[in-house]
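User: Second chain of the day. Same drill as before.
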Amino acid sequence: MKESTRCDYEIIIHKYILPALGEVVLNTLHRSVFDSFYTNLRRIPVGDTQIRYIHRILHKALQDAVDDRILTFNPCEGAKAPKKQRIHRVYCPLNEEQSILLMNQARGTPLEVLIHLALKTGMRQGELFALKWEDVLWETQQIHIQRNLQRVLRDGKQVRTFSTPKTATSDRKIMVGEKTLDALRAQQREVLQKKALAKNRWQENDLVFPSSTGTPLNQSNVLKQYGEIQKAAGLKHIRFHDLRHIAASIMLNHGIQLLTVSYILGYSQSSIMLNMYGYQFSTMELQAACLIDYIFAGAQPSPLPTEFLSAANLKKS
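Assistant: Same format as last time:
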């Protein structure tokens, strides 16, 4: 179990589970106890997503007790945790023109290359903060994403630590263009200047995006600067994580295959991409329908409506 996951479990257990159920004898637990527990959580109020998470933790712990023959059945089974509502969200907060405006506004700021890489690769914030120079494979034009920066609880205090990526598929090598490599070379020079200025205060971590003393970036400071850049560009406020959604949307809009985008972003399943960005596939479906019409039209095919074709499809030779 990852340290961050264990930390999350400990917080949930001490904040919600122990105060309500800590004194209940194990073999007296039954489904109605959990139904009442979830109802009371809603009154606090605790969100449905959090209650479902609490339910999963309880269900797993009690199932372990069943597997160890401490209990004969799982009393949490069938408890009425809130059902997940299917909500269709639009995961592209900025269009291409606005995204370019944001990247241009970031020029000359400490976040220039960070935003550049976020928009062009869709990397998660923790992956960017944990990126090291050893991960930049100059000769093959690749970035190896193999770690994440997370906050965990140690001795009652939050500390930042490097961990393995979110899922097995999050450990990936992605291709980058020459302009992105140029941006990284500029960032490398910037880091060397920081190191020279810091002198003996520098803590070497080999980070692509270090603080002024070589340590991992402080999220609060980054988000403050990021907000200032958005404001200066005259754009609506969007989360840093939304840059990941923008990258995915732009790739999909330009005809990049779902499986390819899913790999680049490190999603564990392509179905996640389909659920999040399915609203964008109507144009692709129309392309497919027109193509089938064209193929089976015989000797006198109807002209394919090019206004629905992406630039990528038109460039086939």
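The first helix runs from residue 3 to 21.

User: Great, on to the next one.
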